[in-house]
User: Fold these one by one.
Assistant:
Number 1:
Amino acid sequence: MSTLQQITPWQRVTEELTAIVGKGSVITDVAEALVYECDGLSMYRQRPKLVVLPQTTAQVSAILKVCDRYRIPFVARGSGTGLSGGALPHTEGILIVTSRMHQILDIDLANQQVVVQPGVINAWVTQAVADEGFYYAPDPSSQIICSIGGNVAENSGGVHCLKYGVTTNHVLGLTVVLPNGEIVELGGAAPEMPGYDLMGVFVGSEGTLGIATEIRLRILKQAEAIAVLLADFTTIEAAGETVSAIIRAGIIPAGMEIMDNLSINAVEDVVATNCYPRDAGAVLLVEVDGLDAEVPILQERVTRICYEQGARHVTVATEAEDRLRLWKGRKAAFAAAGRLSPNYFVQDGVIPRSQLATVLKEIAQLSQRSGYRIANVFHAGDGNLHPLILYDQAVPGALAEVEALGGEILKLCVRLGGSISGEHGIGSDKACFMSEMFSPADLETMQQVRSAFDPKRLANPEKVFPTPRTCGEAAHQLKDFPNIEAF
Amino acid sequence: MSTLQQITPWQRVTEELTAIVGKGSVITDVAEALVYECDGLSMYRQRPKLVVLPQTTAQVSAILKVCDRYRIPFVARGSGTGLSGGALPHTEGILIVTSRMHQILDIDLANQQVVVQPGVINAWVTQAVADEGFYYAPDPSSQIICSIGGNVAENSGGVHCLKYGVTTNHVLGLTVVLPNGEIVELGGAAPEMPGYDLMGVFVGSEGTLGIATEIRLRILKQAEAIAVLLADFTTIEAAGETVSAIIRAGIIPAGMEIMDNLSINAVEDVVATNCYPRDAGAVLLVEVDGLDAEVPILQERVTRICYEQGARHVTVATEAEDRLRLWKGRKAAFAAAGRLSPNYFVQDGVIPRSQLATVLKEIAQLSQRSGYRIANVFHAGDGNLHPLILYDQAVPGALAEVEALGGEILKLCVRLGGSISGEHGIGSDKACFMSEMFSPADLETMQQVRSAFDPKRLANPEKVFPTPRTCGEAAHQLKDFPNIEAF
C-alpha cells in the first residue's frame, strides 16, 4: 500500500485549497478557527471543517470548483457582524472568509462609482472619497466593522435608508462566482442594464446564490447642510403619530428614529447624554439634510409638526459636534441595553408606518404577558422595528421563551401587513417564519431561482428557507450532503 | 364519426377560452385582430392565432393553464406602445391583451401606495391622486396611452428618472400569474421584504416570466416648486459637458435633456416654440424641483454653470404655463422627426455620462459615413441616448442599412462602457445584440432563471434572448412548439 492512499479526503481537500491560496490562508486548527464559529447572533455556534481566506476572484472561483467537485457545502463570511446567523458555518463544510479581499479597486468620481472587494469595510468607502465631497450612503450601525460583501448579502440598511434607500439602491454591478466556480457579471457601470435584474436578486440573497468578489457601488455628493432635531413626547404613540405627520407633510428626512422610555433610561445610565429626558415616553430623532437654504426651512417645519403633535420640547442641532451629541444616545442604544440585563435579543421586523401605534401597544401587551421587558428602538420612518427583549441566558428555559416571544412579534408584524425582516436578514434564525409571509407557491418560485444559480445546494445551505431542521425538528438535512469522508 | 371529432384543436382552445372570459373577449376574426399585429415598432408585424381580453387575475390564471396544457406560447400586451417589438404576437400563439384590466383597486395615501390592474394607463395613476397632492413618478413620453403593465414589463423610464428612478424603483409588489397558471406574490406592501427580490427580476423581464395582474405602486408627494431652464450652446459637446458640470456640483435635477441642431429645427418647423434658437448647436433643458426656498437657489446655480460652460443664453420658467412652453419642443421631438423624412428609427442606448462628448462625435461620423441623417434627442443626465435615424422605407434596402447603423450605435455604446438599452427594452429588436454585453455564462444564468419561472418556454418566447431567428438566420425556433393542430 502506498502512503498516498492513507491521505483522508479532507486532507486532500486541504491540500488542494492550500495549492490555491497558499499555506497561511487555510485554517484547520480548532483554536484558530474558534473565532469563526458564530456571527453577531452569538447564541448559536457551529464549527466548519476548515476556513479558507482567499484574496482574488480567481482564487474564490478555484475554491468553489473544489467544493463543486467534492460536493462540499460552503458559507461565505465577511466581518461576522450579521444578526440572523447567516454566516453560521456548516459543520460539514468550508467557511470562506473574505477579510483578505480588502482592496478598493477603482474610484471613478466623474461617474460617482467605486469598485471594491467584498472584505472592504463599509466606512472605508466613505473615507476613500470624503475629501472629494462624496460618501457611501448605506450606514448600518456596525459600519465601522461590517464588510461591503456582508452588506450585499444582507441588503443592509441603516439610519439613513428612509431617504437614501438600502444597499440594493447603491450597488451598480457585481462580479459573482457561482457555486460551480463560474464567474459572471451582474449589472454593471451603465445606469440601466437590459436582461433580468439578477444583481437585484443577488443583493439580499444571504450567500445562497454564490459569492460576490467585486462590487461596484454608487457614491453620493455630501449634503451642504444637516440638522438634527430631538423631540420628546409623553407617549410613544404621539412620537409614532409625528412620524406619519412629517411624511404626510411631504418631508422626507434623512432619518427618523424613535426610542422608548426604557431605552432612554438605559442610554442615560451608560453614556449620560443629558439630552434625553428620563421621564419622556419616547424621543424622536429627525435628521434633515439638503441645501444651506433648504435645511432651516425643513427644521422649522419639522419643529412645528412636533409641537402640533404634542412634543414637550424640541432641540435642534446644526453644528457637527452638537448633532453627534444628539445622536450619541441612539448610537449607544444596543450597547446600553446590555446594561439593563445580562442578555438581550434584538428582533427585526417591519410594519406599515400607519400601524406604528397599534404594533407598539401590542408589543407592550406581549411584554406584560410574558414577563420579559422589551426596549423599543427603531427606524420609525420606514416602520423598521428593533425591539430588544431583555433576558438572562443563565435562567433555564429563558432563551426558548425569548425566541418564542420574538416569534410572536414577527407574526404580529406580518398580521399588520409588514415583514419578518427589515435589514438583518433571515439567516438561520428566521427561516422557520418564512412560511408566515410566503405561500408554498411563492417559496417554490424562490427555490426554483435558487436552483438556477446553485443546483447542488452548496451555497450557504439550511439558511433563509424553512427546512425541518430550522423549524426545530430532526436535523436530517445534513444527509443531503454526501459525507466527504466517503470519497 | 361523431361531430365532436371534427372540432379542430384551435376551435377547442377557443371554446375553452370563451368559457373563461366570455364570448366578446376572444377575438379570432382577422380584421378585428389586425390592430394587434404589431406594437410601437411597427415595421414588424405578426398575426396571433387568437386574441383574448381577460378582466381578472383568476381569468389570466385559467388562460395560462390552457396554454400550459396545450403548450401554446403566449404574449401579453398592454397598450402596444413598446418600441422594441416586445409585444409582437407569436404566430402560433395567443395574444393576451390587458386593456380590460383597467381598475384602480386601492389607494392608500397614508402609506403612499396605489394598487392597479395592468391595463391602467400610466397617467391615470397621477390623475387619481393629484387632488391629494401626490403623483406617480415614472413618466415615459407615451404616458397618456401606455399601460402600467407594459411599464413593468419594460422597466420604463422617462424624463424625470434621473432624480426619481425608473419603474422598478416605484413598484412595491406584484401579483403574478406564472406561465403554468399558478398565482404568486412578489414583493408587497412592506418597505423591505425578505427572500430573493423576485419582484426586481420580474420588472423589466419583458413578459418572459409571466403576467403581472395586480401592481402595487409607490406614489410621491408633489414638489412645492419647479423651475425649467433652457440653455442654448453653439456646440453639442458644450451642452454635454454642462450636464457633467451640474452633476459634479452636487445638483441632481429632476431631468436633463439635450436636443441637437437637427432636432431643434425639426420641432421649430412643426410646433414653432420660438424658444429653441435655430442656429444653436444644441439646447439643454434642465428641470429642478424642491421646496419654494430651494428651487430659486438651484436655478441660479444651474444658470451660472451653464454660462460658465459657454451657454449663449439661459431662459428660466417657473410658472406652469411657461414651463410647458419650454418643454413643448422636447415633447414634440419624435413627432417632429417624422416631418424630416418619411420614416425614422429611434435607437435607445446608454453610455456613462463622462463619455457623452465622445459618443456624439462618433455618431456624427457614423451618420456621415452612412449618408443617413441622425437627430439626437436624449436623457442626458443618465446618459440615455435616443438617436433618430432618418430614412425612407420606400427606398429598397434602406431599412436593412438603418438597422445595421442602429446596431453600430449600440456596439459603440457597449464599447464605451454603456448598454444596448436604456428604457425601450430588448424585445424582438435587440435580442441579437445581447451577446455584445453579456458573456455566455451571464446569458446562461439568465436562461436558468427564466426556466425557474417558465420551464416550457411559453411566455413571450423568441424575445430578449438571442436565438438564430432573431439574429437573422433561419427561423427554425418555431419547431420548439409542437404545432397545436397535432393535438
Number 2:
Amino acid sequence: MTVATAGEFGLISRVTARLGAESPYVLLGPGDDAALVAAPDGRVVASTDVLVEGRHFRRDWSSARDVGHRAAAANLADIAAMGARPTALLVALCAPANLQISWAEELADGLAAEAGKTGAVVVGGDTSASPTLTISVTALGDLGGESPVLRSGAQPGDVVAVAGRIGHAAAGYTILSRGFRSPKLLVEAFRRPEVPYHLGPVAARLGATAMIDVSDGLLADLGHIAAASGVGIDVRRDAFTVPEPMRDAATALGVDPYGWILTGGDDHALAATFPSDTRLSSDWLVVGSVVASSLFTAGDGVTVDGRRYAGGAPGWDHFR
Amino acid sequence: MTVATAGEFGLISRVTARLGAESPYVLLGPGDDAALVAAPDGRVVASTDVLVEGRHFRRDWSSARDVGHRAAAANLADIAAMGARPTALLVALCAPANLQISWAEELADGLAAEAGKTGAVVVGGDTSASPTLTISVTALGDLGGESPVLRSGAQPGDVVAVAGRIGHAAAGYTILSRGFRSPKLLVEAFRRPEVPYHLGPVAARLGATAMIDVSDGLLADLGHIAAASGVGIDVRRDAFTVPEPMRDAATALGVDPYGWILTGGDDHALAATFPSDTRLSSDWLVVGSVVASSLFTAGDGVTVDGRRYAGGAPGWDHFR
C-alpha cells in the first residue's frame, strides 16, 4: 500500500502505532496539536537536522530502518554535543505519493530504535506529499542542571579528544559509491552511525571546555570550535590508528585513509576540548591540542602536525 | 546570488543575520550544535509542521516573506491551540541550488516577523540542497503553569466557539487558482494567516475544555475534537456571517461560500469548546454546541444544523 492510498491520517496512525515507547519525559505524545515534554531544569536544548534523498541517503544503499537510525542519530548527537541528554524527537516526513507505507513504518522503527538508545521518544511530527523524500527531525534534550558545553570555550593548552568512530561513514560512502558492498563494518557505519551519546553529559561533568559532533568532518568541525573559541587547534595524525578494514579498503580503492579520518563526516563522533589535566577514560582518544592563534579565519584555525592539511577541502557543504 | 554560490555556511550566516531578535526565553540562539530555550514551568510544548512548494505554497502566488509568515503561523498556531505561548522556532530549509539567496533572506524575514507577533524567536535550524523547496518548522512554547488544552476534553452541553478568520484562506486559494488576484482581503488571507495567538492562553484560563487550530477545515478539525472527546458536535450554519468580499467572490466564481467557511483550511483560527456558562469576549464567535454521541467514527461526529454536511468531503489530506 502506498502512502497516498493510506492517506495522511492513515499514514500518521500507522506510523504512530510503531512509536509506542514511554518515557517520564513525555507528558503528552502524538495526536494533539502539539506534544508536551518535561524540561525538569527549566531549560530545553533543541536542534533540527534534515535528510534529503539523493543527498544524505539513497534508498538502494540504505534500508528505511537505516535511514531512520541515521536521521535520529544526526539530531541526537547534536543534543549530546551540548552535554545534554536527548528526551524527545519530532519528525516531519515528506514523501512521494507512491512511497510504500511499509517504508514509512520501517523508517519509524529506525527512528524509535535509535532514539531509544538515549531514552528519547518520538513525540510528534507532520507528513506531506512531496516529489522529494525528505526527513526533518527536531531533537529536544535536558541538561540536568549542568551548563551547556558550547563551541566557544576552548582554551590554549587544552587537549582535543574524540569519542566514537571517525572516518568510518565516509569510508562506507566511498565504498558504496564505487559499487562495492563490503567491508561490512564500514558500509554499516555509513548506514547507521554509532554515537556514544552518553559521553556528552559525561564530558560536561568532566569539565569539557568545548564540544561538537563530527558531522561535517573532523577538521571542519574542529574548525568551528577554533573559530568560535578564537584559538587554533593542532591535530596529530599519528594519534589515529587506521583500523584494518579501513586500511584494506583504502588500499583496494587507492585512496588515503587519513582523508576519511580527517575530513569524512557523518559519523557523529563527539569531539571535545578538555583542560590538560583532565583524566579521560579510554572512551576518549586524545588527538591534538588547542594552541593560541592570533591570526585565523573561520575553518582555517586547524592544522595537522603543525601544517595546513593538504588532503583536499575539509568538510561537506550540503549545497555543493 | 544563488544559495549554491553562497554555500551552506554562507546561507546560514546570511539568514541568521536577519533573525536578530532577543527574548528572555532564548538562552542560546543559532550557531552552536543546538539552541537552549527557557522552559520556566519545567515543561515545553513542541510541534512540527512542514510546507512543500507546489502543495502548500507557490512562488508565483506568494512572496518569500509571505511563505515565511505562513510557515511560522502554521506552527505557532499549534502552540496557541494548546493554550501555550510560543517561545522559539527551529527551521529546516531545503532549497534548490539555484534559489536566490534573497529569497531565503526574505523567507527568514517573514518567519521572524510572524514569530515576533507572539514574542517567539528563531533559535536554530538546518539547510540542505533539495530539488523541492521545503520548509520544516518546529515551534516550542510555554504553558506558564497552566494545564494544556487537549482535543479530548469536550463535554456534552459545551459551546463551540471560534476566534480568528474562517474560510478566508480557502477563498483566497480558490481565487488564485482561478487566475484572479482579488479581492485582496481573501488573497492576502491565503498568503498570510492572521492568527489570534494570544487567545490560546486566554482560552486556557477561561476553562476551555478542548481546543484545536483550524488547519484542515472547521468541520474536519472539530471532527478531531469530537473523536478525541467521544462526543458529537453540531455547528449552526447561520452562526456565520459571510463577509461581503467573500460573498461577492463566491457569486462571481459560482461557488457556495459556506464550503469555504465549513471545510476550508489554513486560516489557523482557534476552535474551542467551553462550558456553556463561560463568559466569552467578542473575540469569540459561538458556532455550535457539543452533544452526546453514542455512535460515531473519526471525523463523522460533526453535523451542521443537525445533519451530515453534504457540501463535499471536509478537510484537506496532504497526500491526495
